[in-house]
Amino acid sequence: xxxxxxxxxxxxxxxxxxxxxxxxxxxxxxxxxxxxxxxxxxxxxxxxxxxxxxxxxxxxxxxxxxxxxxxxxxxxxxxxxxxxxxxxxxxxxxxxxxxxxxxxxxxxxxxxxxxxxxxxxxxxxxxxxxxxxxxxxxxxxxxxxxxxxxxxxxxxxxxxxxxxxxxxxxxxxxxxxxxxxxxxxxxxxxxxxxxxxxxxxxxxxxxxxxxxxxxxxxxxxxxxxxxxxxxxxxxxxxxxxxxxxxxxxxxxxxxxxxxxxxxxxxxxxxxxxxxxxxxxxxxxxxxxxxxxxxxxxxxxxxxxxxxxxxxxxxxxxxxxxxxxxxxxxxxxxxxxxxxxxxxxxxxxxxxxxxxxxxxxxxxxxxxxxxxxxxxxxxxxxxxxxxxxxxxxxxxxx
Length: 397
Fold this sequence. Notes:
It comes from Ficus carica (Common fig). Keywords: ATP-binding, Kinase, Membrane, Nucleotide-binding, Transferase, Transmembrane, Transmembrane helix. This is Protein kinase domain-containing protein. GO terms for molecular function: ATP binding; protein kinase activity. By secondary structure, the protein is α+β, with helices and mostly antiparallel strands. It has 2 domains: about 55-150, 2-Layer Sandwich (Phosphorylase Kinase, domain 1); about 155-370, Transferase(Phosphotransferase), domain 1, CATH 1.10.510. It is built from 13 helices and 12 strands. The strands form 4 sheets. A 6-stranded mixed beta sheet has the order 1-5-6-4-3-2. A hairpin with a 2-residue loop joins strand 2 and strand 3 (about 85-90). Helix 6 (about 170-190) packs antiparallel against helix 12 (about 340-345) and helix 8 (about 255-270) packs antiparallel against helix 11. It is elongated, with a radius of gyration of 27 Å.
């Protein structure tokens, strides 16, 4: 046999051997990995990497039809409220678990899609008893949905804005104030990632069956670099709760959340909105009205009349109001960190210094709104998270 024939023979035998080896490996692969598992791997590979990666593996991925059935096809009767980027519906899964489903249509808003992704990443990266718990999400075609634990007492604004007969005594209000403060302390100081919520307000504070508060709606939240004092960014949030340096100059830091917390504390104590244009002019903007009472040594007149009738610890209420004023200081560096605020609310720690007059964002004339300044802006616009559905149950006395 010639050398050329031998070479051809060796190539043929080598090719056959490689084929047999590949066939054996394929059979072993099919034996170990079931076709159903292989289909899952293929589907996972086809998923958009932005949405189904990283921390998202720790939450459930819901089927759209499951959520559609749970909410009775997103029936208006199950509408809990409207978030900044979509409505929120009450739902019930087949196993009886109650859920809250935030629905957002990406076709209507590309910004909404990015906010959806931001909220999923944000919530799955943090865990705290005073932060809302995300159960899962859904992404099918144009549909983007977030699935939260259902909070039986809904949002705080439904109680404190005085549109119903619900009443919270001082013990319950104080519990909510402290709980929100602890949630913010975790986001700002204890979380592995420094996070700014950017939209702390009554409608974003959810209440469980024991009226323990949980901060929700992280669609506007931002990760914050440890080595920077503030970020320069476009304004996003709710006027009336927004710190002057952020609303006017776009300077964002955790101090913006602290300012919003100060406004929220005054709302909880007075049981009214931060801006109410139906009131006399001197009472329309809550922080300004509270400061005027403080200057007249009549700050307890701010307290909700029902709570005055029910009774409260005057020292604790005064301490909470003092904390609120410290949070509303005109310069960000004058506002105490949340860890100090929690200490002042829970340990009766002494408050260092006397609060300065807050930098009011108050509405004066229409032309002032076009050229805002620290003395001319207020909240002429209602919160985007209004809700007109049924009332929460009465809190414990």
